[in-house]
């Protein structure tokens, strides 16, 4: 049986919980549209203030999350180095429940004290009184209540939920039980209510103090040390006036010290000050700790809408497979402006990371959008960005760098050969990962298939797939208008298998073939030539539209990462959680195997089975 006040009454409502704001919204709208009937707008102004406060408080939590998740800015100052995984994200999904609770409590206050509706805009005396009440009431009250919550039964039933999060984030500040937030509401409300009862209240105080309270809570849970240690050496008394993210993180990791709200003075007086607080703060704020990853995946942005899927934008959105939603249209103009800025000024930056068997794997992002790769004048600039990333990785001591789809485009840089030839002494291994991509596609084809239709047949992947299948005595209809390219590929096959490679120039040739391997975009009209029951395997970017209801469509080649992956909390494009594109997985396997060769240019057909077996050996699984 769940303990009283240990779970939220609306926990089963999902997103429908936001309908609980409905009565406040209805009251505001009703009064606004019925002013001519003598209904005072002021009577509903408190509803508007409660809604505005709730929105602003949510924005503060989101802003702190975005800042702390911008790893390209904060990676060296992170306190707990682990990533936030899907388990923690799901656990904290309803972090904002406390906002609904406190809106209800605020509404009750306005009903009990109607005079609060007519508060002045500002009263400086209220600010002084609230500060005094904060130090004399809120801080000691929270300190005592917090220590009480750490005792046996109370901790297990209530406070352990908050401490179950491994990596602190601003959303963790709101993650807790109703009892905890009732206590927090009293602690936060005491200075505001007290100042109002003394006649020094103002709307400025209500907004200012509550937003300051949330700001400081988020600061402590940000997991990024924002204070330079020199300030505490210059002004030692500040150590007891304001807490730091490092100070609060020690409370979460050791649980028996640093109980204060915002002022370590009360831990000093209570004898619960952690002796390591300032030394650790100095160590982290010096920003000298920069972990070198074993593997880097060099990604790129697909389009403007997908840029909103970045892990520092919206955590709930990026932790689910990408899909276009209506609210994206509202943010699209802002994302477009940021795109122009990134195009002009930005360099490659760290996007996310995860760990496999103690090895750090990072994703770096080239700030270039899909359409830019097809602009002739942008070619040199994109290659410069990729080259700088490779040289940076080489300087850092990274072992393997894998190129995402368009970053290894044949027309752009020959599948990475441009960089390997230009810098023959590279220690970092450059990998396009297409060998595993080919292996994934080939292992999707049923063993009883005797004939396939292949588009994009003369591409890097198309060539490898054709040469592999012909060795299995599978007839491959290669769609290409270039006889010269076809004959060149055919000559690469052993003489006894060359007969299984057949050139076709029209889609009509495949009207009786039910296995299509798509490496070139297909229009709905071209898909009509496929017979009923056809399965479309594909390695074309972006994927083709699922136009035929009587056919089935495979997804882009992908693999599920090993079970022991840690700190992964972002979905890669439209793939499910824990699944990455095969070219990404190919780099992971290259790193785990410790291979010392570059994987660039044409695919070595003889290595397809070797790479596939290595992937399965390390726990990667086909999707």
From TrEMBL:
One of its GO terms (molecular function) is oxidoreductase activity. The chain crosses the membrane at residues 95-114, 126-146, 193-212, 326-345. It is found in: Endoplasmic reticulum membrane. It is a multi-pass membrane protein. Its EC number is 4.1.99.5. This is aldehyde oxygenase (deformylating). Residues 132-272 form the Fatty acid hydroxylase domain. It comes from Asparagus officinalis (Garden asparagus). GO terms for biological process: lipid biosynthetic process. Residues 452-622 form the Very-long-chain aldehyde decarbonylase CER1-like C-terminal domain. It catalyses: a long-chain fatty aldehyde + 2 NADPH + O2 + H(+) = a long-chain alkane + formate + 2 NADP(+) + H2O. It is an enzyme of class 4 (lyase). Belongs to the sterol desaturase family.
């Amino acid at each position: 049986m769940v303990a009283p006040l240990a779970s939220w009454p609306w926990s089963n409502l999902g997103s429908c919980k936001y309908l609980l704001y409905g009565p406040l919204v209805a009251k505001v709208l009703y009064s606004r549209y019925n002013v001519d009937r003598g209904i005072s707008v002021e009577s509903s102004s408190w509803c508007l203030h409660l809604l505005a406060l709730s929105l602003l408080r949510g924005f503060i939590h989101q802003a702190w999350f975005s800042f702390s998740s911008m790893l390209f800015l904060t990676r060296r100052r992170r306190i707990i180095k682990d990533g936030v995984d899907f388990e923690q994200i799901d656990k904290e999904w309803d972090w904002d429940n406390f906002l609904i609770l406190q809106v209800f409590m605020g509404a009750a206050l306005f009903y009990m004290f109607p005079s609060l509706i007519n508060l002045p805009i500002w009263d400086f005396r209220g600010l002084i009184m609230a500060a005094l009440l904060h130090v004399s009431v809120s801080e000691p009250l929270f300190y005592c209540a917090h220590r009480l919550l750490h005792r046996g039964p109370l901790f297990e039933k209530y406070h352990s939920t908050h401490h179950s999060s491994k990596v602190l984030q601003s959303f963790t500040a709101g993650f807790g039980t109703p009892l905890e937030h009732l206590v927090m509401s009293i602690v936060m409300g005491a200075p505001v209510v007290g100042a109002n009862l003394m006649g020094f209240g103002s709307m400025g105080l209500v907004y200012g103090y509550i937003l300051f309270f949330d700001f400081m809570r988020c600061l402590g849970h940000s997991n990024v040390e924002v204070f330079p240690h020199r300030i505490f050496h210059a002004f030692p008394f500040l150590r007891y006036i304001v807490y730091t993210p490092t100070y609060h993180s020690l409370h979460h990791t050791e649980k028996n010290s640093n109980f204060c709200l915002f002022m370590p003075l009360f831990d000093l007086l209570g004898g619960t000050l952690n002796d390591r607080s300032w030394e650790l703060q100095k160590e982290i704020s010096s920003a000298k700790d920069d972990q070198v990853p074993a593997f880097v995946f060099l990604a790129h942005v697909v389009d403007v809408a997908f840029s909103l899927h970045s892990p520092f934008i919206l955590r709930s959105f990026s932790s689910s497979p990408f899909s276009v939603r209506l609210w994206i249209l509202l943010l699209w103009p802002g994302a477009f402006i940021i795109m122009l800025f990134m195009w002009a000024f930005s360099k490659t930056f760290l996007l996310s990371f995860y760990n496999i068997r103690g090895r750090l794997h990072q994703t770096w992002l080239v700030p270039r959008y899909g359409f830019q790769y097809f602009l002739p004048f942008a070619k040199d600039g994109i290659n410069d960005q990729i080259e700088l990333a490779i040289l940076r990785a080489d300087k850092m001591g990274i072992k393997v760098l894998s190129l995402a789809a368009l970053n290894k485009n044949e027309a752009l840089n020959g599948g990475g050969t441009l960089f390997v030839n230009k810098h023959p002494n590279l220690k970092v291994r450059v990998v396009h990962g297409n060998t595993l991509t080919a292996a994934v596609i080939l292992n999707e084809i049923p063993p009883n298939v005797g004939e396939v239709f292949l588009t994009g047949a003369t591409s890097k992947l198309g060539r490898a797939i054709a040469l592999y299948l012909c060795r299995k005595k599978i007839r491959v209809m290669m769609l290409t208008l270039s006889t010269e390219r076809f004959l060149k590929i055919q000559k690469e096959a052993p003489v006894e298998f060359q007969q299984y490679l057949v050139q076709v120039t029209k889609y009509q040739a495949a009207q009786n073939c039910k296995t299509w391997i798509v490496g070139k975009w297909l229009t709905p009209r071209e898909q009509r030539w496929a017979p009923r029951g056809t399965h479309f395997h594909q390695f074309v970017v972006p994927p083709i539209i699922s136009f035929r209801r009587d056919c089935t469509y495979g997804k882009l080649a992908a693999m599920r990462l090993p079970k022991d992956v840690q700190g992964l909390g972002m979905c890669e494009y439209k793939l499910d959680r824990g699944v990455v594109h095969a070219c990404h997985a190919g780099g992971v396997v290259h790193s785990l195997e410790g291979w010392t060769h570059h994987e660039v240019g044409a695919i070595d057909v003889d290595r397809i089975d070797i790479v596939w077996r290595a992937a399965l050996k390390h726990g990667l699984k086909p999707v």
